[in-house]
Queue: 2 jobs
Job 1
Amino acid sequence: MPLVNMKELLLKANEENYAVGAFNVANMEMVRGAIKAAEDLNSPIIIQVAEGRLEYSPLDLIGPMMIEAAKASKVDVSVNFDHGLTLKNIKRALEIGFTSVMIDGSKLPLEENINLTKNVIEEAKKYNACVEAEVGRVGGSEDDSNVVSILYTDVNDAKKFIKETDVDILAVAIGNAHGVYSGEPKLNFEVLESINRTIEIPLVLHGGTGITKEDFRKCAKTGIKKINIATATFNSVDRYVKEFYKNNDDTNYFKLNLAQVRGTYENVYKHIKIFGSENKA
């Protein structure tokens, strides 16, 4: 299957009423595990790396790996630059071949967010790539640094933003948060339903770790077509590696490699089943 534009995946998801998982990866093992899970379930998938994680996964190293893995996949794969913060790194991701980029101007005043997003869209057009942006503010922290509070997406702000930018995909804040929730997540479905009635482009849910199966499925039926999963996969890899060392006296690097692949695979496989994208590739 070809490396595909993310908008293409999400428009199909919108037509058939399911969501596509967007899974953050940090190394070769995670790339392999994520795509293998998608192939085994015949599901489209989005793999992504966030700008806040480039200290650990340099873009010029992991980016080409993600692109080549997507091209070799048996299912449709989109490669996304998640939570882009600087035009420099967004441009580099596009040069490498990412089929979509996110510009995160959610902490800026609305007009500044609009202007920044328009600049990114102009750049992305040169590469036939699509752009995701965010209105409102998802809580928590994408890179374990400064934790921010949730600011629900205002439907009128979202309408204005889309009208002035013509952005392809919009991330919304409905009570979701990055990282591990301190209590049970409480999504505001009234806010989501209002946005979904008003906004025609695909919507994105960030901060998926810890949300219940029922809420995921309700989101997928209420306009959310891309669901981001990062922390849950990193935690799954960590757990599998710890169990590997605990349960095996005969250890070597290559067995450790497989433990990381398996930890990624299991979490991605589980979430694909929940999101309803199985057999949709």
Job 2
Amino acid sequence: MRKIWTFIFVFLQTICFAQVTILPGDASVNSSLLKPGIYTMAYTINYNGEWVPLGEYITEVAFVNKQLKVNTSLSFAKTNTQWTDNFVADANKFLPVSSYSDRDERTLSLSFSNKVTGSYLDKRLQKKKQIDQNLPLNCFDVSVYPYIIQMLPLDVGYRAILPVFDYEAADNAKTHRIEITEVKSDVHISDLTGEHKVWKVAVSEGNTGHSFDYFIDKTNRRIWKISIVSAKGDKIAMTNIETEFNPFKAPFDKKATLAMVQSGNAVIKGTAFARDNENEGGLKGMAVLNINKKQYAAKGTEIVLIPYTAYFKQWIALNEKQRKIKNAKPIPLAKEAFDCFKRASVYDDNGSFEFTNLMPGDYLLVTAFGYKHTSRQTEETGRASVFVNGAYQGDQVYTSVFSYSSNATANIQKVVSIEKEGEKVEVKLKKTL
């Protein structure tokens, strides 16, 4: 009986997790899972335990005239160079049609039919080699396999082999195996959009010796991240930076927004200062009891004026939500939106500033400056036992009030409204603790 159960267990494992070979035209390749679009990934390398930016990897995927077309570019910021790759495959079986690859040291151009024809240019030697050889049957071009993986029926325990043709393989075989060795569930945390459930797909390249982990979204099959360990042991990461991410619903009108800060004759003028409140305990925060002097923003302190339109209100609200997402980065504004900010500097020792040429509307004033924060705190300094007629009555507690001083920063935001043309509005940008 024990042998029977062992046989059943092994048999079920074989059925569930058998390694399949995916060939061109395989019915399990679902093209609807591959979404056209342009995707940008940060390209980094691990150097002495730190991730160092190298450049940017951009992929453009499109289905055109029953063909899959993919254009990629890898830009290196430090050397100001770029690698480009373009390939075309038919959108039925994903058999290769053509490919073009340009690197610092060479250019490779291939066309596929029953043969592989094209050219290989060695830029260092300035030598060009013509290519004319038979195309191995039942294999993908090496360029297309990452996109085939996105279209496979991924699941826990899934394993597969994809035969690929690689003209630049180190040996002469040219046909090699791309092996999906493991698929597991995982989670990817995006700086902008939070948590995403993904398939972590471990891949081994027989043609290069590199190992990959693809983090593929379970819902939309977006590749969120690719972790690479090269044959030499280098660790590289490519992470989707969601350049297409646009949570804004309110439209931005640059012309109208610039007019608000350039084409009017209203004025906002005021002072920026902090006023300390030393009260502690039950009186803490009661500014009415504050007797400390104003501490004015220093000369040169920058005051920023933001036209408080629906677009900018939404930007502020979105970033309030971002603060609640662990490790999330702020949602940036487009440069054209930043162009509509207006800036003024404090021009005297009394924290004074002015904004001119403003139209009626709402404006958000923002500033930050340092000041000296003082506080008073009552502390126990001693105790004494109290006796009356020789009988112990309890302890007498002695206290003292101590004053403490520390550096602090006043971060101030205030919405100011201009009601009519030519109005002069006076404001106090103040912070009271």
